[in-house]
Design goal:
Layout: H1 3-45, H2 49-62, H3 67-79, H4 83-96, H5 101-113, H6 117-130, H7 135-147, H8 151-164, H9 169-181, H10 185-198, H11 203-215, H12 219-232, H13 237-249, H14 253-266, H15 271-284, H16 286-299, H17 304-317
Helix pairs in contact: 1-2, 1-3, 2-3, 3-4, 4-5, 5-6, 5-7, 6-7, 7-8, 7-9, 8-9, 9-10, 9-11, 10-11, 11-12, 12-13, 13-14, 14-15, 15-16
Length: 318
């Protein structure tokens, strides 16, 4: 082989080896990103959210355009009730994969929570352009028109949603809300009770019934709902506070303090609930309230919030 031929051969050999190395590197990076992504999804499915988040972020370090990784980070944010992170991650999915239907659905529901019905409608229409029978999109449109107080239109779309998915309690609960707003509250509550009896995951249904009963001022039914919610969710402080307020507003003072003391037995250091009890007791008997406050402070000497509460009470008395 001549010298020029040898030089030419070496030149193209080096180029070929370089291209192969780049290709191999690219392939290994894709494989690594895929491994991290799949590991993150498996951990998410097992409920190991912190570990899942770490694996998904590792995948994004390698490939920042992995829409699936952002979507699972969004699902983790949803479980953590971190709504800002949920919106941020879903928006990233939408940016990377505009046709990602599940991300569009969740973004539309966030828009509804933010009272942005028109934006939710736009996203629902986009979904229906991709999938003309999408039950979630019809349900989103129904919810948006419910917000806009166009109840007949809302009922039309929730009917379409139920045609596509008659088993969804979430979709059926939207129909309950529309029926109530149309003035057919008795039938709405009947349908809702049937759903509650049918479903195992009943939290959102019980909350909806409590909300409707509050709107129609049925305090007896509200009390029953909150007691059921407490029984099913004994660590959820908000339900104890709501029931206590209901009982207090009905002049059932002992019942109100009893509910809060029941929660304190489970969480004896909870400052918010102790202050709620102090407020109720002090209105009835200031001396008894002061004695109870001193007892709380003596049993929890490092609690600055209780001490500040006492200072505020003393200043208010002057």
């Amino acid at each position: 082989m001549s010298v020029p031929s040898m030089k030419l051969f070496l030149k193209y050999s080096i180029i070929g080896l370089f291209l192969l190395s780049v290709s191999g590197c690219s392939g290994s990076k894709d494989e690594a990103a895929s491994r991290y992504l799949n590991s993150g999804i498996e951990l998410f499915d097992r409920g190991e959210l912190s570990k899942a988040s770490l694996e998904l972020r590792n995948a994004l370090q390698i490939d920042p355009k992995l829409a699936s990784a952002y979507f699972y980070l969004a699902l983790i944010s949803e479980k953590d009730q971190n709504w800002k992170a949920l919106y941020k991650n879903l928006s990233k999915v939408e940016q990377l994969d505009p046709n990602h239907v599940q991300a569009k659905v969740k973004l539309a529901y966030l828009m509804l929570l933010a009272k942005q019905a028109d934006t939710a409608l736009e996203k629902a229409d986009f979904i229906l352009a991709l999938d003309k029978d999408n039950a979630e999109a019809f349900a989103i449109k129904a919810s948006a028109y419910l917000q806009k107080e166009l109840y007949d239109v809302a009922m039309e779309y929730i009917g379409k949603a139920i045609e596509q998915n008659s088993d969804s309690a979430e979709i059926a609960s939207i129909k309950v809300s529309i029926m109530h707003k149309q003035g057919d509250t008795e039938a709405a509550l009947g349908l809702l009770s049937d759903l509650i009896d049918r479903e195992q995951d009943r939290l959102h249904l019980l909350l909806l019934r409590a909300e409707i009963n509050q709107e129609i001022n049925d305090t007896e039914a509200m009390e029953a709902d909150y007691r059921t919610l407490i029984r099913n969710n004994p660590e959820e402080k908000g339900f104890y506070l709501k029931l206590a307020k209901l009982l207090h507003d009905s002049d059932r003072i002992d019942g109100a303090t009893g509910v809060l003391k029941k929660y304190l037995k489970r969480n004896p250091k909870d400052t918010q609930v102790r202050i709620a009890i102090l407020e109720i007791v002090s209105r009835q008997d200031p001396a008894a309230g002061e004695a109870l406050l001193n007892k709380y402070i003596a049993n929890d000497t490092s609690n600055a919030e209780l001490r500040f509460y006492r200072v505020e009470k003393l200043m208010a008395a002057d």
